Amino acid sequence: MADDDDSKKKASLEQDETSGGGGIMTESTFASLGVCETLQEACHRLEWKTATQIQKSVLPEALEGRDIIGLAETGSGKTGAFCIPLLQGLLEHPIQSSGSTAALILTPTRELAFQIVQVVQGLGQAMGATAVCIVGGVDRTSQAIALARNPHVIIATPGRLLDHLKDTKGFHLRRVRYLVLDEADRMLSMDFEEELHQILDELPTSRQTMLFSATMTSQVQKLERASLSDPVRISVNSKFQTPQQLLQSYMFIPAKYKDCYLTYLINEHAGQSMLVFGATCNNVQRLALLLRNLGFPAVCLHGQMNQAKRLGALQKFSSGARTILICTDVASRGLDLPQVDLVINFDLPNHGKEYIHRVGRTARAGKSGKAIAMVTQYDVEVYQRIEALLGKQLPEYKTDEETVLVLLERVSEAQRLATRELKEQLSASRGGGRRNKRRSEEDDLEDVLQKQVSQGYQGGSGGRGGALHNQRGSARRNKKHRRK
Questions:
Q1: 246-406: which CATH topology?
Q2: Rounded Cα distance, 283 and 249, in Å
Q3: Which of 188, 199, 186, 184 is nearest to 134 (CA)?
Q4: Residues 101-133 pLDDT 10s
Q5: Which CATH superfamily is domain 2-235 in?
């Protein structure tokens, strides 16, 4: 029962976020859009009272079996728009043969895949629909066992799904009736194009396909031509814009004091829920260590963390156990996060659209929020491109440099500690690989020596024994030197 309650809560939160774009809820009920009674009751249990704009536009067409291209931003209710039609299709036309999966949902990130599973389980609970999540960072054997149970719906990232198609005996997608490509533009920007086309080759041509994307790029158009048949194009809020309730500003600061200004900002907003975006995994990890050394409740989230740590960081932040999440762009789209009060762009993104996705994590569901961009002397050109996309100049966040630099000594000490801890972490993660490599090299040398002995190797004036003694001694010296 606890898992069911969690599923309902997750699915409910996903729908609650859909008003974040500024008034995109409608008065249309799910009954008026053709949703069956079983799924109407499921929506009611999840407290989905009315449909969003994307759901209102997509559901009638999708329930008729049409292919769909949906252009909508993150947080518009897309998950419900594609989950309801495929579940209703399963209810009206059950799978006739055993060993079949009816629906495949592909998504770019692991966290988004886990969220979609929660929504599918919440909606499909009453009708007995089963779903499995296939992503990297999780044991492949347990995933293979789950796939062998023939779930109705598979939610997957492209890379891991392709691994199972190649290596898991008996697993195939030849009877899939529904295909969903969620966040297609991001999947393609993450270089999943080749994997997507390989997966498409494994699917039957007679299927219903729904493609959802925030933008219609040339790559998405190419994917559309390859995967959809006579699609209905539906666009909701396709123009990129930030939430109306969002207060945006920038800080122009010296690069050498960047950590100090970040510390000042976080101290000024202590107790509030904050997202801090960095450019690289290492820098995100370093900033989390820095802030923890200064006593701030910070956790980090980036692509080089294993899946358990990633989910653990999200759980701590979502539950309020930690109020600061330092992250890469893995958290900029689709994640089911609680109300975020402040978004800080510590490193500016290279593309303005990513900036809009980042700051869109706050000021959702009609609430207010703040976003601050940290601009150094090296970021001026990038920042000007962001302002050009926004179509306005942002006000400056005023600070007093003398007040900020009062923190410099403490921040400098925390920097040194964080850098040392990061090096130790990196060394520990690489150490296992180096030790295994050394053992392998030493084992190879022993094999060579044994082979030489068995072949009666004669070496120099010392004869066979002398040569063997010399090489063993060299191996021991090398081993001893490495230990030192």
A1: Rossmann fold (3.40.50)
A2: 23
A3: 199
A4: 999 999 998 888 998 999 999 999 989 999 999
A5: P-loop containing nucleotide triphosphate hydrolases (3.40.50.300)
